[in-house]
Amino acid sequence: VQPAVSHAATVAANVTRRQFTLELAQQLRLQPATGVPQTFKDLPQSDPAFGLIMAAHQAGWISGYPDGTFRPENDITRAEFVTVLVKALKLAPKSGQVFADTQGSWAQSYISTAAAYGIVSGYGATHFGPNDLITREQMTAMVVRAAKLTPVSGELSFKDAATIDAWARGD
To answer: What pTM was computed for the model?
Structure first.
């Protein structure tokens, strides 16, 4: 049984590590891992998301923290999101923009690669905000760019459609 992903949150809401991992695993049709031991001390085998999170971990998309935790309820940062997205899509490393606030960061190469593929942009020319929490709006815009989807024009039927920024709509 695969856990459900809720699409009811607003565009401005942050995204947890659990939510993002489940969403990406389901979108990329990753099958839940079975018969694997508990790797993260805060993610028991009884957790409904265990199989998909462990499959993403085995695939090399995600990792835990040095203290042996996964922290599934922590909100995901922009740097973490981009890193997982680049790994999941198996994007070949490319030299793209290095933002001033990512210089020397653990995620610099992933963010630079995503910039080279046109997936990410910063807040202006020099600031990416790698430690900022990613919003659903930012996450969706990056996924649309990564998948090379064409943004929908016209009226959207989402409950919070009026709150979607023009940049995220592709306007």
So the answer is: 0.80
